[in-house]
Write a structure and sequence with these properties.
mainly alpha, 6 helices, flat
């Protein structure tokens, strides 16, 4: 008799297919998932500092957001692959570009959220890190 949860072995067998389904490398997927975890944990810590109650609604909203992000990454990849298989290079390239754009946007959203949470944790204004980065970038162009 196995003491293993029946679905766990099935889930583990799917893990290698997840990066393939999303069209990204395993290391990129791991780092993206780590960013999601850091965003969640830093958000919980920032909420405690602001003395806000943590609710299951906020957790489910976060989970739904992660799900949507993963779908947004996967869909253009598969459309790109579809058009590439049909020999339609321009359309394949358009969807490849779209996937890259969405990945960049999602990464930027995660970083902003983490930096806002970090600022709150450090007792600073929520936008402190973002403003600091904006100032630095602006100074590079002068």
């Amino acid at each position: 008799m196995s003491l293993t949860f029946p679905g766990l072995s099935g889930l583990a067998s799917l893990v290698p297919d997840i990066p393939l389904a999303l069209g990204i490398q395993t290391a990129a997927l791991i780092m993206m998932l780590m960013a999601f975890v850091v965003e969640l944990l830093s958000g919980i810590a920032a909420s405690r500092i602001k003395k806000e109650r943590f609710s299951s609604f906020r957790l489910s909203r976060f989970s739904f957001k992660v799900f949507i992000y993963l779908v947004l990454i996967a869909v253009p990849y598969h459309w790109s692959q579809n058009y590439a298989a049909k020999g339609e290079a321009v359309m394949a390239e358009c969807f490849d570009w779209l996937q890259n754009f969405l990945i960049i946007h999602i990464a930027q959203e995660n970083m902003v959220s983490i930096l806002e949470n970090l600022a709150v944790i450090e007792g600073k204004e929520k936008s402190a890190w973002i403003e600091s980065i904006k100032t630095k970038i602006t100074s590079l162009w002068r």
